[in-house]
Amino acid sequence: MKNIYLSVTLLFFLLGCAEEKPKQKLNGENLLTQKCAACHNLDMPPESYENEIAPSIMAVTFHLKDFIKADNPTEHKPKIISFIQDYVIDPSAEKSFCDKESLESYGLMPSQKGKVNKDELEAIASYMYDTYDNQILLKQMAEKRRLRAMSLHERVIEQHRCNTCHNIEEDKVAPSFKMIAQRYEKKDRETLIQSIKEGSKGKWENKVLPMPPFKKLSDDDAAGIVDWILGLNP
Ligand code: HEC
Ligand code: HEC
Fold first, then answer.
1. Which of 210, 231, 91 is nearest to 152 (CA)?
2. Residue 94 pLDDT class (50, 70, 90 cuts)
3. Does ligand 2 come within 6 angstroms of the Cβ of 152?
4. Model confidence over 64-89: pLDDT tens digits?
């Protein structure tokens, strides 16, 4: 009898082990940050290349995309993923696509064996392939240039969509920026910054909507747009 119990327990135990764990979807972006950012800069493009201890992930990915060729375009990504899966665990000067000079200045990448596994590397490499992309970089740089060319108030209004409710001249669901400028003075600067960052309601007659808070607006941007609004009053 005891034996039967034992075998049944054993059977369940074995079944339990054999049952495949559902494969979780790993988050490549988080893993890249956790496992690789200590040495590799993840920005696209990096703000600066000074004091680098390893090439940026953007440089690494662009590099691999250039050097690793595939006859069939659908094979390109899988090939790069396998390269990364292998290189991170077992790096060597022979495998590296880094030019000799860079390799000497950075030193060979230390193996990350035991710190990251194959599945995690697949998620990381797939994320790298999709994110560090020439087209995306060009678009982001063009967008940055466009925003930089704008004056501060134009940029804030566009980024936070203030003009869905406000107009400079026209009284809409929200008071026009000129009406606000007429009601307030320089000494009310802090009050207005507060209204924008925390929201406002009941201060303007016949406005049914409250003004939502814009907590993500930086202090500098909030102050800048308040100065611009107050400046609309001649
Ligand atoms: C301790 C620092 C360090 C960590 C952590 C690190 N790397 Fe590196 N990595 C380097 C250095 C240094 C190089 C440049 C020298 C070389 O190519 O081996 C490099 C190069 C690479 C290359 C380029 C190989 C080539 O041929 O151009 C890849 C791909 C790479 N790393 C991926 C990763 C990934 C993915 C992670 C996170 C799982 C990671 N690295 C974590 C230091 C690091
Ligand atoms: C969803 C509509 C809406 C959006 C979007 C919106 N506002 Fe308003 N705003 C209002 C309304 C409504 C009021 C009047 C609230 C009241 O009666 O207190 C208001 C009031 C204000 C006031 C005056 C606050 C006070 O203390 O009298 C300022 C300044 C202002 N908005 C700036 C902005 C700026 C800057 C943005 C974009 C970052 C913005 N608003 C986006 C609806 C909006």
1. 231
2. very high
3. no
4. 999 999 999 999 999 999 999 999 99
200 φ, ψ (degrees, to nearest 5): -155, 140
Query: In sequence order, which residues have a C-beta less than 8 Å from that of residue 112 and are 6 or more positions away?
Result: 35, 88, 89
Is the model more confident about 138 or about 24? 138
User: Dihedral angle at the C-alpha atoms of 192, 198, 204, 208, nearest 10 degrees?
Assistant: 150
Q: Which residues of 126-136 are buried (b: 16+ CB within 10 A; e: fewer)?
A: bbbbebbbeee
Question: Does 24-139 carry CATH code 3.90.1300.10?
Answer: no
pLDDT at 17 over 90: no
User: Which residue has 């134009």 as its token pair?
Assistant: 154
Six token digits for residue 102: 């860079």
**Nearest C-alpha to atom 32 of ligand 2 is from which residue?**
196
Q: What is the pLDDT of residue 57?
A: 98
Q: Which CATH class for the 150-230 domain?
A: mainly alpha
User: Which pLDDT belongs to residue 206?
Assistant: 87
Q: To test ligand 2's pocket by mutation, which of 156, 157, 165 has the most ligand atoms within 8 angstroms of CB?
A: 165
Mutate to test the pocket of ligand 1, among 60, 61, 105 (most ligand atoms within 8 A of CB): 60
Q: Where are the domains of the chain?
A: 24-139, 150-230
